[in-house]
Amino acid sequence: MSHLPAPSSRRIAALLPVLPAVAVLGLLALPPSSAGTDGPGPADVASGLVVLVCVLRLVRDRRRPLSRTAAVVLGLPVVGVTVAALGAPSAEGGVIGLARYLQIFVLVPAAVLLLLRDRADVRLLSWSFVGLALWQGAVGVHQYVTGTGASYRGAHIRAVGTFGPQDVMGMATVVAVGMVCAVGLALGHSRVRQRVGAAGCVLALLAPLALSFSRGAWIATAVACTLQLVLAGLRRALKVAATTAAACVVLVGGLGVGTEMLQERIDSITQVADTPDQSVADRYAMWSASTAMWRERPVAGVGLKGFPEYRDGYASVALSSASDTEGAGSAYLRQPLLSPHNMYLLVLGEQGLIGLLCLVGSWLALLVCALRRLRRTRSTPRHGTDCALVACGLLVWQLTDFAYSDIGGHSTVVTSMAFGLVAWWALGGTDEEGAAAPAAMPGTAKEAVAR
C-alpha cells in the first residue's frame, strides 16, 4: 500500500525549485568582502550556479525550455552586446563586459523564468525582495541614527546598508525594489493578512528610502508606485495615497527624520540649470561625453568597457576625476567615475544604435506583454492581480531608474532577479492559480503526476 507524503512535506517539496532564486537574494544581505565592489560577489556566484543548474536540467531532459516569443525577447540583447564586445578597446574588457551583460539581462532572467512555476512562487520571490529590503533598510536607519553611515556633506549619516560607500546606490535600489513589491502585494486581490502586512512594510520602508538620499531612487519609486495605484483602481489609489502622505508627515514633520538635509536634497532635483551641486555637474558632463562618443560612432559605439577609455577625450573640464567615498566601515577613497550613471546613454555610447535598439526593444516588449496580460487578468481579478502589479511596477521602476543609474556593484544582481520575475509574468506564466507555467523546468508535470 502506497503512502502519500504529509502535507508539510508536499509544501516543502513545492518550494524547492524556487529556493535557489531566494537564496541569491539572501546572499545580498551579507556584508561585501574586503575587496569592495571589484570582482563578483557571493550573490553573483550564486546566480551563475543557478544558471548552470538550469542548463544541466535542460540538457538532461532534452526539452525546449522557452517559448519562441520568450527566446526572442530575452535573446534580443545578445545581438547588440556581441557586436559591441567585438569592437571593445581591449579583448579582456570585451569578454568581461559581454559576460556581465549576458548575466544581468539574459541568463539570470531566463533562469528565474524557468524556476518560477506559478503565482505562489512569484509571491514568495516578491516577499523575499521585501524581506531583503527590510533588513537593508534597518541597517541603513541604524547607520543614520548612530552616525555610522556613508559620508554625506561632512557627516556619516547616509544610509547604505551592508553595501558600503563604494556601492552607495545598493541599499537604495534594494529598498526601492522591495517597496514596489510591497505596494503590488498590498494592492492585489489576495488575503487580507497579506495586504495588511505588505502595507505595513511599505510604511516601514519609507524612512530608509528617504535616508538613502538617492534622488534617482526617489523619482523611480514615485513613478512606479503611482502607476501601480492607477492600475489598481482610483478608489484604492486614493486610500493608499492618503495613508502614505500621512506617514510621510509623521516621519519627516513629526519625528524630524532628516528634515533639513532631505529638504535640501529634494530641492537639488530641480536645480539642474541654476546652481547644481558637483554630483549633478559631473553627471551632466558624463552624459555629454556619452552622446559625443555616439555621434562619432553612431552604429556600434566605442565598444564594451569603452567609456572609461574615451571619457577624458570627450568630457568637459567641469567633470571631476573621481568622487569621494568614506564611512560605513570604509576608509577614505577616491572612486573614479567610470560610467555616465545613465544606462541608456551608457549603452548608446558603448554599443551604439544597434545595442540601444536591441536592449531597449527587449524591455519595451516585456512591458507590452506584461500590460497585455494585466488587461486579461482584470476579467478574473482574484487570480494574480498582485503578481501583475508587482511585475509591472518592477519593470517601470527599473526603466525609470536607468535614467539616473546604470549597472555596477553587487546590488546589480537585484536587477537581474527583477527582470526574471517580470519575464515570468510577461512571457511564461499561466492565468490559473497554482498551475505550472509553460516555461517551467521540464519534468515538473511528470513529478506532479507521480505525487
Automatic annotation (TrEMBL):
The record ties this protein, via PANTHER family, to:
LIPOPOLYSACCHARIDE BIOSYNTHESIS PROTEIN PA4999-RELATED, TEICHURONIC ACID BIOSYNTHESIS PROTEIN TUAE
Identify the domain of life: Bacteria
Task: Identify the Pfam families for this entry.
Answer: Wzy_C (PF04932)
Q: From the Swiss-Prot or TrEMBL record, state where the protein is found.
A: Membrane
Q: What is this protein called?
A: O-antigen ligase family protein
Q: How does it sit in the membrane?
A: Multi-pass membrane protein
The GO cellular component terms are: membrane
All copies of the O-antigen ligase-related domain together span: 202-360
Residues crossing the lipid bilayer are 12-30, 42-59, 71-91, 97-117, 124-145, 168-188, 195-211, 352-371
Q: Which UniProt keywords apply?
A: Ligase, Membrane, Transmembrane, Transmembrane helix
Q: What is its main location?
A: membrane
Gene Ontology MF terms in the entry: ligase activity
